[in-house]
Amino acid sequence: MTGSSHELSLKKKRELDRSIKSFKTWLCKIKKLPQGTSDSIVIFPRPTSADWIMKVDGSEVRFNSYITSRCSFDCFRLVVLHECFHLFVQHLPNKEDAKMFRDDFGPGFMQLFDVEADYYTAMFFKEVEHVSLVEMFDLYREVGKIFADPTIRQPKLARFIGSILSIANAYFKNPRAKQTTKENELYLPNVSNILTEETIHVFLLTKNHFAYGKIKIGIHDFVRIRECYTASDVIGRREYVEELLAFASKALQMEIPQLIHRGVYALPSVTPIRSRSVGQS
């Protein structure tokens, strides 16, 4: 199924093309890509409901804008730049390549690749476009609405939690738009122990080494973050962001900076299903 109602305007296509080039320039600046990396030819074909966002054929990169009828342009940019990180840095241009990688090395490494792509896309938005953590998590709510999964698949949930912790950790340490990527910490959690131990086991990737750790999280906290993953469309914008911030603060054992706290109150507070404050037990 195709339709012009899902197609980007010429102005938006040019803006997205500039964002992709800016993202690549930034990746070269932080040494994730070598200088002089050639640009790709970006093409926006007629949108289709087929299950793909990006397809690569040689130097041509096609982006399917079908989901733009259900999300903001900034949300779509976030998704596109995530895919670009897979292409530019991780060399996984198409779904077939990701599947082969997962078959070769297991789902855990693919989850880690996704967390890394989420992290660096968020850091680009932070450092280049000065997007706050509140705004970033608000975009994540939109992403959740588009890619909502009625079934809770543990690897997908673990990837979501890993991305939230990795991004929040960078913002909590430096909430303003400054360089944070030199000391990145990427979290890949395993949530299978939550019911028996009330802990999440974590594989931690830092700039210089790997590490293993445990995060103390209660079942109630886990249920609430799981609700954010599965039901972002029925949770108010402010409530959703507050839930993610509270979970990250407790898991990382870090205080939420006041600058981030203040940003939460700029969001509308609408809770269709429940009305309760963050931290209520």
Q: What is the assembly state of the chains in this entry?
A: single chain
> What shape does the CA trace take?
globular
Give the helix/strand class: mainly alpha
Proportion in helices: 40-55%
Low-confidence stretches: 272-281
Strand content: 5-15%
Overall mean pLDDT = 89
Total helices: the number is 10
Cα Rg: 19 Å
Spatial order of the strands in the main sheet? 1-3-2
Q: In whole angstroms, how far apart are the ends?
A: 46 Å
Structure commentary:
Residues about 270-280 have low confidence and may be disordered. This protein starts with 9 loop residues before the first helix and ends in a 17-residue tail after the last helix. The protein contains 10 helices and 6 strands, in the order αβββαααααβαββααα. α1 crosses α2 (about 75-90), α6 (about 155-175) packs across α9 and α8 packs across α9 (about 235-250). A 3-stranded mixed sheet has the order 1-3-2, covered by helices on one side. It has a 3-stranded antiparallel sheet with strand order 4-5-6. The longest helix is centred in the middle third of the chain and has 21 residues, at about 105-125. It has a domain at about 105-280. The chain has about 280 residues and is mostly helical.
